[in-house]
Specification:
The protein has 549 residues and is mainly beta. The chain has helices at 92-95, 208-214, 216-222, 287-297, 362-365, 537-548; strands at residues 17-19, 24-25, 51-52, 61-68, 73-84, 87-90, 106-111, 124-133, 147-151, 180-185, 199-206, 227-230, 246-251, 254-265, 278-282, 330-337, 343-354, 357-360, 377-381, 394-403, 417-421, 450-455, 463-470, 481-485, 500-505, 508-515, 528-532.
Length: 549
């Protein structure tokens, strides 16, 4: 049986594009996420070439309806994917009204649905509150064909209603070329009739070169950044009504949405061309746009590698000090031992400044084993007790260490390093970035500013202490270093290297200092020397921008 995805809007034959319409997606940005991409219903295997599914097999797939004539007319138009309790991801061509920019005909979404011709107890119908269409989308072209549907109220997750996972920022679609994913929809069958029961088919991702070579005239005009191709050219393809549905990949963390069915070429008489590849919107390419669209609707904005006002704010769900989430940017850095005595050892602290970046010291990040090689590094985020495995911690490997070019072993002036994580972390109540300073510490009055030093010290549980800026008598300090000390004889000890010193202004926390190695050991009467982060802000941002370009 051929699997075809139905598209509601057919673009002009002159363009030979059939746009597909879809639904919205929601990743929860700065709140704890539900488990995503997990089926609650046992299913049989899928059949390559298209097959009927069973109820609950694709619990994140949604049906999008346009309601007209004051609710008297309701028409199925496309699919979508649930990505959170209040958001569905679909195509802009489905979500938007071509005559009224910013308005939407996609008025109703059905979740938990399997058979469009029958009603079921597991089905939930929710009105669409708002359609957020990509600002650069134009009807008649598949470029930027992505939209988010915000539902009027959050849905409850059941065996038949679950969110799909979104890809991670680092997972480029090129890495998945030739791999097989699953497309889902109620599109037209071979006889041209809309399928009542949800269909699925397995198709591979095709390289852009192969896609262009298959039909240079069509794909040469339509393919653009933010798109990719898939298909088998054997009758297994999307058709009218399948637009907006997802292409999913089974991974360790669950089913991940990587593509949104968008367009295919037309046959001689305008029918779906099932003997050709089809085009999809690349979800990872639009990931930041999706997250920002959702963030705006929730009253906050998430920016990639944020060092703006969206940083440095504790979650309102965290009440009281000494709890998980009090210092959500604090990280524990571990050195990983291999060989005859494998394991890992707590080495120092670090501070999260973006979804993929931490600041710590060079002497910690580049710690060498006896044979002269550097230890692999693992970072833990989201907890306060090093020995409490039940705390909401996240463990991430370090991909790359950036050492300040002027660092010399034993010198505190440039003892600052930037860690790039292997994968971006999701922001939650317990994991958030802190702000970087814009102004220099030299603007402060010495001895008149007190900030919070945070670290594990020699304890298992995270500690914090107030330290005031002091003059560094007898030391060779420069503008890149400042000193701080506590009035009640508390200072840093073993385990606090790399810890941050933070200032709070209007409930927004900023990282101003990073603790270097104590020159005189664990001495409670000795001031601390800290790297002045303000003088390194440009270096840090430059390194991040070089990686993200």
């Amino acid at each position: 049986m051929a699997m075809m995805i139905v598209m509601y809007h057919i673009l002009p034959i002159l363009l030979a594009i059939l746009c597909v319409e879809c639904q919205q997606v929601q990743p929860l940005l700065r709140y704890p996420k539900p488990v995503c991409g997990t089926r609650k219903i046992s299913t049989r295997g899928l059949i390559v070439g298209g097959s009927e599914t069973v109820p609950g097999e694709w619990p994140w797939h949604a049906a999008v309806y346009h309601v007209q004539d004051e609710g008297r007319v309701r028409k199925y138009v496309c699919g979508g994917t649930l990505i959170g309790a209040k958001f569905v991801l679909t195509t802009a061509s489905c979500a938007g009204n071509k005559h009224r920019r910013g308005k939407s005909d996609a008025s109703v979404v059905e979740l938990g649905q399997y058979d469009l011709a029958e009603s079921s107890r597991q089905k939930v119908e929710v009105a669409v509150k708002r359609a957020i269409v990509h600002e650069q989308f134009t009807f008649g072209t598949p470029k930027n064909d992505v939209a988010v549907l915000e539902l009027r109220h959050a849905v409850s997750f059941t065996d038949y209603i679950q969110p799909a996972c979104l890809p991670k920022e680092s997972e480029a679609i090129k890495e998945f070329e030739s791999e097989t994913g699953t497309i889902v929809g109620w599109g037209n069958k071979l006889d041209g009739v809309l399928a009542d029961r949800l269909q699925s088919a397995q198709v591979p991702i095709i390289s852009l070169i192969e896609c262009l070579q298959s039909d240079p005239d069509f794909f040469g005009k339509t393919l653009n950044t933010g798109m990719f191709c898939a298909g088998r050219k054997n009758g297994t393809a999307p058709c009218f009504g399948d637009a907006g549905g997802g292409m999913f990949f089974k991974e360790e963390r669950g089913w991940v949405l990587r593509g949104i069915t968008s367009f295919t070429s037309a046959g001689p008489i305008g029918e779906c061309n099932t003997q050709q590849f089809f085009g999809l919107s690349n979800v990872v390419y639009y990931l930041e746009w999706i997250q920002n669209a959702i963030g705006k609707s929730q009253g906050h904005l998430r920016r990639k590698n944020s060092t703006s006002r969206s940083c440095g704010v504790r979650s309102t769900a965290i009440q009281g000090l000494g709890r998980n989430g009090e210092w959500p940017w604090q990280a524990a850095v571990y050195h990983v031992h291999r060989g005859s005595n494998p394991g890992r050892e707590f080495a120092c602290s670090g501070t999260l400044i973006g979804s993929r970046y931490l600041v710590t010291t060079v002497s910690c990040a580049r710690y060498e084993a006896k044979n002269g090689t550097n230890f692999p590094i693992v970072v833990e985020l989201g907890h306060v007790d090093l020995n409490d495995s039940a705390s909401p911690r996240v463990s991430v490997g370090v991909r790359k260490v950036f050492v300040h070019e002027q660092y010399v072993r034993g010198d505190t002036k440039h003892n600052l390093a930037l860690l790039q994580l292997r994968n971006p972390v999701d922001y939650t109540d317990h994991i958030l970035p802190v702000c970087l300073p814009d102004s220099s510490l030299s603007d402060m009055q010495f001895g008149n500013r007190s900030g919070s030093l945070v670290g594990w010290n020699t304890a298992e549980r995270l500690q914090s202490v107030q330290l005031s800026i002091v003059r560094c008598s007898g030391s060779d300090v420069s503008s890149k270093v400042f000193c701080a000390m506590s009035e009640n004889a508390t200072t840093n000890c073993v385990g606090d290297e790399g810890s941050g010193w933070f200032l709070n202004k209007n409930e927004v926390w900023t990282l101003y200092g990073v603790v270097s190695e104590p020159r005189k050991g664990c001495d409670y009467q000795q001031y601390l020397e800290l790297a002045n982060v303000a003088t390194f802000s440009a270096w840090i941002k430059n390194k991040i921008n070089q990686q993200d370009d």
